[in-house]
Amino acid sequence: MRNIHLLNDDWIFTYFNESTTKVNIPHTWNNIDGQDGGDDYRRGTCVYEKDFLSPEYSENQCVYLEFAGVNASAKVILNDNEIMTHDGGYSTFRCDITDYLKKQNHLTVYVDNSVNDKVYPQKADFTFYGGIYRDVRLIVLNKQHFCMDYFGGSGLAVSATPDGKDADVWVRAWHNADKATVNIKIFDDLGVEIASSTGDDTHIKIYDVHLWQGIENPYLYTCEAELTVDGIVTDKVKTNFGVRSYYVDAQKGFFLNGKPYVLRGVCRHQDRKGLGNALSPEHHEQDIDMIREVGANTIRLAHYQHDQYFYDLCDKYGFVVWAEIPYISEHMPNGRDNTISQMKELIIQNYNHASICFWGLSNEITISTKDKKDMLDNHHALNDLVHEMDPGRPTTLACYAVCGPFNKVAHISDVVSWNLYLGWYTPFLWLNDLWVDFFHFVYPNRALGYSEYGCEAMTNLHSSHPRRGDQTEEYQCVYHEYLLRFFEKRPFMWATHLWNMFDFAADARNQGGEPGMNHKGLVTFDREIKKDSFYLYKAYWSTEPFVHICGRRYVDRTEKITKVKVYSNCDEVTLYANGEKIAEQKGKKVFNFKVAISPQTEIKAVAGDCTDTINICKVDKPNPDYKLKKDGGKGENWV
């Protein structure tokens, strides 16, 4: 019914009026300079141009131009006609261009990620890439079609609610046709039609329903809407959806389909080394595969709307998702309208995703906000908007670490989480216990979670005596071991989201010997190295048997007797050194051994059918490459 033509290839890109080159979409001009923290990081306006032939279409058809993501503001000109503008770097927008098309067409897009006071984000701990970094499409369809012009949505919304062994499915469709009929069909996961109805606002019953059960069984149905005018089908759209119920109990945590379902997971940024935000489907698949491997069951998709394909993957694999807008770090009075429009786009474009269970209002908004009254008023407006648009999903927000328990912003959303780095940016890991237990005591009926926690780790930095601030892999392990034990004792926490699954670019940072980066990930920016802490989480969360010896990059050691740490989800680990059995240890998740080492020592761990091996060396002097360099403050930690 619809013909889609990608316009991704052969664009002419002009970089700040300085140089011109040919590029393909997806593309960003900050894929390098946004990742090195140097003075060459550029924000401003660049230009993309493309010549293309008009697609074939008939008199009863129209053509839409669609952008899936342009960061951050776009002005689109087709054949010398300004056809649309858009403010917001992470959502889909489109326009009917039929009246502007010629046989030969010239398309110009001015892309602006410069500093301003009206488009979010403007202040945050991540790089604001510029560019057309998601697909560009031409969509040819009948002039009588499902809605294409409302905040980038599909014109189809599906709400599914369990009803005993059955389910009630409420389907709403929007279109521009007069005297049209909308036929709705429901298909199971094998593509078999199981229910149908007629109407653009209708309820359908699914008997003996299969519930969407998170990562255990993420069962998806398909809803198809068909638009018929005078007996002719003019348009067709479809969407996947899941049937599930859930709620949050302030004392017992998250419940999915009436059963306790402990939410433990990660946050994710969408960039990677050398590419910035310009990712392919294969990159998204690799990311979700690693998150699946670590055993998480929830993802906070920070701090903006992510690619539709990634939400689809979350639906498919059963992740409970927190989706949010980039209302972050600073309230801008001139940006209120932009928070509203970005929230509308987020909800309308993502309403049907079974994985999305929470809408995030803001992140660390009190960090530098001056007009607190206006900020609070804007939060209430956003909270009311979400409840009006989608009363079935609760709201949440992420509070800044020094935003105290009594701060008004922490009591607006339905549930709340905190970004706390106690034990990293402040001394003493046990402050986590004091802080959370105090909040829970004062507000026992307020659902509380952790939206961020974590610490930096460079894969080239190591120590046998790790301490806060040294950025070693070893301290990251110490930190996360404490936090995982801490969470186990507090089942009332509705969700915990580790910051971050992957290292990511943060242009304002200069630390750890690698400027322009935040190194709190469990996996490196290029996705090549899974840090030791990755396997700690795998030991706690994954059911796939494995064993992992920590310290494989800590090769040179000066001590005669060294500590060897092993992570495993097996109950027993046996350790060998140069083929000789050292010890056999029963335990849970973390196994600690002491081993006498020689100039060349092979360490082998065995747990059930799983094995792992590393090689370490006894040396006379410490390897200077393992220690964080002092360079007049430029390489110091943020502690």
Cα-to-Cα separation, first versus last residue: 57 Å
Shape: globular
Question: What share of the residues lie within helices?
Answer: 10-25%
Please count the beta strands (DSSP E, at least 2 residues each): 40
Overview of the molecule:
The chain folds into 4 domains: 3-141, Galactose-binding domain-like (Jelly Rolls); 156-241, Immunoglobulin-like; 258-544, TIM Barrel, CATH 3.20.20; 556-625, Immunoglobulin-like. The strands form 10 sheets. It has an 8-stranded parallel sheet. The relative contact order is 0.09. The N and C termini lie far apart (57 Å). Helix 1 (281-294) runs parallel beside helix 2 (308-317), helix 3 runs parallel beside helix 4 (372-389) and helix 6 packs parallel to helix 7. Helix content is 15%, strand content 35%. With 639 residues, the protein is an alpha+beta fold. The radius of gyration is 26 Å and the shape is globular. The chain has 7 helices and 40 strands.
Concise overview:
With 639 residues, the protein is an alpha+beta fold. It has 7 helices and 40 strands.
What does the secondary structure layout of this molecule look like, with pairings?
Blueprint: E1 3-6, E2 11-15, E3 19-23, E4 45-53, E5 61-67, E6 70-71, E7 73-78, E8 81-87, E9 93-96, E10 104-112, E11 131-132, E12 136-142, E13 156-163, E14 166-173, E15 180-187, E16 193-198, E17 201-206, E18 221-229, E19 232-241, E20 246-249, E21 253-256, E22 259-260, E23 264-268, H1 281-294, E24 298-301, H2 308-317, E25 320-324, H3 336-350, E26 356-363, H4 372-389, E27 395-399, E28 416-419, H5 431-442, E29 448-452, H6 473-488, E30 496-498, E31 504-505, E32 517-518, H7 532-541, E33 547-549, E34 556-557, E35 561-568, E36 572-577, E37 580-586, E38 589-596, E39 601-607, E40 610-618
Parallel strand pairs: 23-24, 23-30, 24-25, 25-26, 26-27, 27-28, 28-29, 34-40
Antiparallel strand pairs: 1-12, 2-3, 2-4, 4-10, 5-9, 5-12, 6-11, 7-8, 7-10, 13-14, 14-17, 15-16, 15-18, 18-19, 20-21, 21-22, 31-32, 33-35, 35-38, 36-37, 36-39, 39-40
